[in-house]
Structure formats: C-alpha cells, structure tokens
Write a structure and sequence with these properties.
mainly alpha
Amino acid sequence: MTSFRWRTSGSPRDYLYVSVTNSTAFSPTDTMPLSTRAELLMSAQSVSALLTSLLVIARAVSILH
C-alpha cells in the first residue's frame, strides 16, 4: 500500500474566505479571487449583505409586533 500524505497549499486567509462565503451564501462560493484585496472586499460584501438582511428582518418583526 502506498503511503499518502495530504498537504494543504492554501493559507489561513484562504480558509477564512471560504468559510465566510460558504456560511453566508451571499457571495460566489465557487470562485476564488486571485488577490488578497479582492478576497477582503468580497468577504466584506458578503458580511454586509448578511447584516443588511438581518436588519431588514428585525425591522419587519418589530413593526409586526
């Protein structure tokens, strides 16, 4: 049997980006930006979209009560 050692090629920043995009699902999860700046901007956009949605839902619930 052949021994196989799995090694990662990504940095912790890449894993953080993937976790943010997968957890919020407001950004493209199947594409990886090439630059750090693009990753940060896309992560910020994803988090801001999630927060905006939560604020709109909270406001709607507040109005209904």
